[in-house]
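Page 37, top half.
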Amino acid sequence: MILEFPLDVWGLIIERGRLDIPDVLNLLRVNKQLNVLLKHNSIWYRIMYNKYLKLQLQFDIKSAKQLVRARNDGSTSQNYFQTCMWFYKKDLEYHNSIPDTNADIGMFLDRFSIDDDYLPIIYNHYHQLPQDYTEMIRKKNYRIHLSERADCLNLLQAQSFKVGIDYLSKMFNGEIDTTSASALEEFWFNISLLDRASHSLVYTRQQVLKRIFKLLHRDIRIKIFFNESIHSNVSLISVENDKDILVFKDEQALMQLIVHIFRLSMSCLEFQNPLVSIDDEVVFGKYCSSYFLEDFSLLRLYGGQVKGHPFLIMAILIKVIDEFLISNYRIRFEDSENIENLQINMTSTYLRVRNHLFSFDRKTLTLFTSFDVYTISEVVMNLRNRSYFEISKFIEPLEFKYVVECFLHLDTFMEAKSLDTIMRPDYYFTNPIVNLNSFVHHEFNTISAQAYSFLKLLCRYIQDIDSENDFLDSMFCRELERSMNYLNNHIYFNAIFHTLQNNPSKQNKVKAHFLDHPSEDWLFSENFALFEDNSKISIKKILKNYFFVKVRDPTKPLQSGTIIKHEKFETYGIVLGEVMTTNENTHYYRVYTTKKTTECYNLNSISVVDHNTKDLDKLLNFILKSCGEDVIASLFGNCLVLSESHPLLLMF
């Protein structure tokens, strides 16, 4: 009876029944007839797509796109059973190599951080692990292993970083088409992949875009077809074997449709910040005239975590207009038979659609639905006292390279001491209609500012990939070494080294500076000892040189890894070590806080968290999530030890 099921029914059984690859392989062994039936390409394509390709597509992996494109084009040359077995072999290899608590992350970075076939494998494994430690703590299991989750996180971040840095390398080498309408959105997406949070947010991009296009189809195409509501001045002419034609009554009708598309699209970019209550009055967010460094993260914008800089908003809208309107329709007006060219471009301040300019300045942390519309004549009249060159900056389309340079020229103004935020005025994004003398601030969290400075360093070196300058190469290597010895940036070394393979001369300079054993198969594990002082990349260097702390001394009041609470600020954190001072009677400690900043606290202002702390399970989960398990495992070791008689320590 079962053998008589048709192929599509077997496909539903496998997909809806959530049968994994081993389950289907067992079915192949039942008999020859079922073996032949279940080896059909359509069965294994769906298995491979759901388990591996779907996630690779979210990261814009080229090989996955090629497989899906070949499938959609009806190609029969690909054997999807063999391709899926290739993935499954790597899946088994990874799971058989999962580290124990004493394993060196370097070996796993060498094996799994460069090959993007491992990306969905690591991602799937990470989400199968327990997402918190509540049950362990409640059962008084006082030894909690962090290594498995931490290694997964580090590998995911290294894989995301590799995709982003590879894109930037190809872009600077002219291998990326920067003239397409989606080029800007693609650029900001790959910049976001260099963000530590990218692996957990990447799925939101496709979700939000699908939601936008579904909404546009339902609210615009269907209503135009039935000649409803605001679309009464628009008619649709269906054309066989060609794009349909939208006929507008006049220019104003076209702009009304563009405005409606913008509003529908931006209604899907919801800011998820919780409501703020001020004097019992509930308000949506708060006024904010500044843009934060995180506002340049496209994935955080899609995920509703930030309001988003106008450059990112405009990049999304250009992509939407191109894929929904320009790619599917031709446009003309009622009084003409000529097809109109709908051009949409970004200027230094506006989004330009034909002769209209759209201004986006999201000053409040609310649902982003408002914008201003001007004609070019209105803008020129407002700027009539400016020179032609100055006026042209506001109305002429921007080149792609200008947007890149704008982002790479943001200045963090790093200070020696730790600050919550660092601000500076920037005149690139001035809105001349509102106030000719106004400016927009950029704020930088110190951790974000370090990451941004690291990104700028890499981009400048990759951008200058063809130049030969021994002094600059030497400077880069020293700066790269300093950056590698900050938090857990060392996980990116393999990706950076392989990105430089397009320029053997520069790669050899990095090799000579960092590597004693030039084997590229075991690049990290054979050249760096993370817990030795003389290694180029070392956890001890991070603690001693960057955080200015002493080596652990058991005789001191607090040891490195002690979980503490600042009594006045009510902030939790983990002690990195004692700050070097000349006064032996005063003790100051460098603390890595749950705000992901490093602070210097006096011993008298902090208390130690121990096993008697109220709601210990919730507190520890909060600390681990806020500080980041990847960073904690790198700086303090792989095991969280809870003792009934001692403070909570993260042990080496």
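Page 37, bottom half:
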Amino acid sequence: MSILILTQDYPSSENKYAMPYVHSRSRVYSDKNIKFEVLNFSSKKSYVYENINILNYKDAINKIKKGDYNLIISHAPNIKNHIKFLMKYRRYYKGMLMFFHGHEALRVDKYYPMPYSYRKNRKMIQKLYDVFKLFFLHQFIKKSLKLKNIHLVFVSEWMKEHFIKNVNLNQDLITHNSSIINNNSNEIFNNNSYELNTTNILADFITIRPLDDSKYAIDIVVEFAKDYPKYKFHIYGKGRYFDYHDMPENIEVFSEFFTQDELPNLFDKYRFALMPTRLDSQGVMMCEMATYGIPLITSDIPICREMLRDFNNVQYISNENLAENIKLNLKGIEKSIVKNSKFNVSNTVKLEIDIINNTLSKFV
């Protein structure tokens, strides 16, 4: 008997950055000798990635029908695949953990910023989908809570609060059947610390963001760069934003991909990380940068305050009043001297493993 993890996508040799927060957990589970496999709904074939077995839908169905899994773990459950699977094969497993990371439990039109003007706005389609999504999520979780075979995990207080508002379930009932556990930082950021490479500084600021998603606020990076013309800014990410907008002379864009193991060496070549956001349920990359210790500038929104309030290497900027950001004292943002362990394995995945073991013990 083992565990089946459901995920819409998963890293592979062709796409190493697909839902990396699921893989980071898997690596720890594997190190702790937990028996599990992963169903990647987006994969047409089964494969092995970093010694972890990834199944396609057909292979996973064959195994669950044989009774191979006692516990199902679902990350960012959608109704198209996750809920459909969990309902159809409910009699083959005994319990489930559902991890909520963001959009899967929110009314997107109410939370997400308007897309950039060059991108298609599918607002009506999204609104209709969200009505069905939240209805089925409500019904499924309500029934599962009555059966007492589900535990919910939220990656932040913010995520839990807005899940309850959107899925419309009793707050006390959710609180008694849920936990708040942050996504962990990759161990490379916990085990190493930022040190500016003064002999090889590439630029003053580094930003790692998809360019086309307005929630990641590349437009704010651009305005910030305009306010600080004497500083150089490097953006790592893909997208068409600068096909439609002028790029200031002090910005340079790179489409290179870096593995997490390569990022610390890259961060050491910059004085600051600039990571504004309009919406996040945690902001894993931001948290990993803060953990590593690089001086970090991010947005003054509730989720960033929740995640980073204990870090002394972080400063906040306004998303609305951009003129205020020019008053930021860059010299007052210093690297972290004492390592903050908020997002290490002991404070994150270890708590998940305790829940997993406690759940599995009920099935013996």
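Margin note: DSSP finds 14 helices and 14 strands in the chain.
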